[in-house]
Design goal:
Blueprint: H1 2-19, H2 24-33, H3 36-43, E1 50-55, H4 58-74, E2 79-84, H5 87-93, E3 101-104, H6 110-120, E4 124-128, H7 134-142, E5 146-152, H8 166-172, E6 177-180, H9 183-191, E7 197-199, H10 204-209, H11 219-225, E8 230-236, H12 238-250, E9 256-261, H13 266-275, E10 280-282, E11 296-298, H14 305-308, E12 314-317, H15 330-333, E13 339-342, H16 349-357, E14 360-363, H17 366-378, H18 380-396, H19 400-409
Parallel strand pairs: 1-2, 1-4, 2-3, 4-5, 5-6, 6-7, 8-9, 8-12, 9-11, 10-11, 12-13, 13-14
Helix pairs in contact: 4-5, 4-19, 6-7, 7-8
């Protein structure tokens, strides 16, 4: 199985390099990996003490960040290397105050695993969620380097639990300890003989809860909202926007709407703005126009949505109306607001739980969307009750980071 895996890895790498010529995202990864060893060689000496964090993409980085921050405090004299597999993480976090070096992880070959670890020579390695690379893990084991997996989530359909998944199961044994998000993950690992497991939960809860401790003030949003009810549609795709735009165009209520699309390409933003029949202002126009004069605000920038949620009375989170995948609902829930999502949310445990508790509402069509949005907008008691259920849910799920750091310090 190991031989087959290595052959397939080389074949996949070869073909990806060809496909990258026609795909911008893949090309970023292929070109970026060419610089990995040069970056490592220039920034790490044999005398340096190093800790290595690895994430597949931006989502895993956000999950691991609360843990990374605490480890940075624990080991202030270590250099921190952060690696990504996907451009979605690297391109956004290649410059950040937490880490000293950010690189693409080279493909999982024996040569790359040995070469990468020769440069990095870490004292501690933290992988996040799904990252299981047999050659890297085997080399970490051979060198007896402490390696931990955090925020892991397992389902029975994964290769680890198939009769032909022996190589992947063996790779799991490299981890000194695995911190999983739920009981089901622990039981699945137990079924294949892995017992060094702790149910710590999802580190994202600590991450979003920390949002309450910072200043979330955005003067232009406060000016836009004034004293009116504000509905925020965050991380929306075209199918999500169709629902919120139809509602905006048809409602007679005096409401404020903020739309923060996932895709902020100029043509997409132009189409969205043109579809709205009420006065609409863009973030990029706010310096020359009076935002308070507009009922609709489109955020054609990134990086401020979590703060915008603090001004919301009702939130609609995109991604689950279609099949692109539900975006982060926890960022809104922490502010104690009710949340509306699409029906395709079953793969997201937090969405299932908040829906069951009554703080989140899943809709299937325009009629259902309009009905639940009307009921939340017009019924203050229902709106506040639903929002408080979400805030309580987040608070009860915190404490993940403490468990992980306590273990590492032992």
């Amino acid at each position: 199985m190991k031989i087959l895996y290595n052959i397939l890895t080389y074949i996949a790498t070869f073909h990806l390099k060809i496909i990258a010529n026609f795909n911008t995202k893949l090309r970023l990864g292929v070109e970026g990996r060419k610089n990995t060893y040069k970056i490592l060689k220039s920034n790490i000496s044999s005398q340096d003490k190093v800790i290595w964090f690895h994430c597949a993409s931006l989502g895993e980085y956000e999950m691991g960040l609360p843990v990374f921050e605490e480890i940075k405090k624990l080991y202030p004299h270590h250099k921190i290397v952060l690696s990504f597999f996907s451009p979605s993480g690297f391109e956004i976090r290649k410059k950040n105050p937490l880490t000293d070096i950010v690189v693409y992880l080279p493909w999982d070959t024996k040569y790359n695993a040995k070469t990468f670890l020769n440069f990095v020579h870490p004292d501690l390695v933290i992988f996040v969620k799904y990252e299981i690379w047999p050659n890297y893990l085997n080399e970490l084991k051979r060198r007896k380097i402490r390696t931990i997996l955090i925020s892991a989530l397992f389902i029975k359909e994964q290769l680890f639990f198939k009769f032909y998944g022996g190589l992947m199961r063996k790779s799991l044994n490299v981890f000194e300890h695995i911190f999983v998000q739920d009981e089901n993950s622990k039981e699945l690992l137990k079924s294949i003989g892995f017992t060094n497991v702790t149910i710590s939960g999802d580190t994202r809860f600590d991450r979003v809860y920390n949002q309450l401790q910072i200043d979330n003030t955005l003067g232009f949003i406060k000016e836009f909202k004034q004293d009116k009810l504000c509905i925020v549609a965050g991380s929306t795709w075209t199918e999500d926007e169709a629902l919120i735009v139809d509602y905006i165009n048809s409602t007679s209520e005096d409401l404020k709407f903020i739309i923060a699309p996932h895709n902020i390409k100029p043509k997409q933003i132009e189409n969205l703005k043109n579809s709205i029949q009420k006065k609409t202002i863009l973030f990029s126009e706010k310096e020359r126009l009076d935002v308070s004069d507009y009922p609709v605000f489109i955020i054609d920038t990134i990086g401020i949505l979590s703060k915008i949620y603090s001004y919301a009375d009702i939130v609609f989170v995109g991604g689950a109306v279609g099949n692109t995948g539900l975006h982060n609902t926890l960022e809104a829930a922490v502010f104690g607001v009710p949340i509306i999502i699409g029906k395709n949310h079953k793969k997201f445990p937090e969405a299932n739980e908040m829906t069951e508790r009554g703080g989140m509402y899943a809709i299937s069509n325009q009629k259902e969307f309009d009905a639940i949005l009307d009921s939340l907008a017009l019924n203050t008691e229902k709106r506040k009750r639903s929002g408080s259920l979400n805030a309580i849910y987040i608070a009860k799920k915190c404490g993940v980071v403490i468990q992980i750091i306590h273990y590492i310090r032992k």
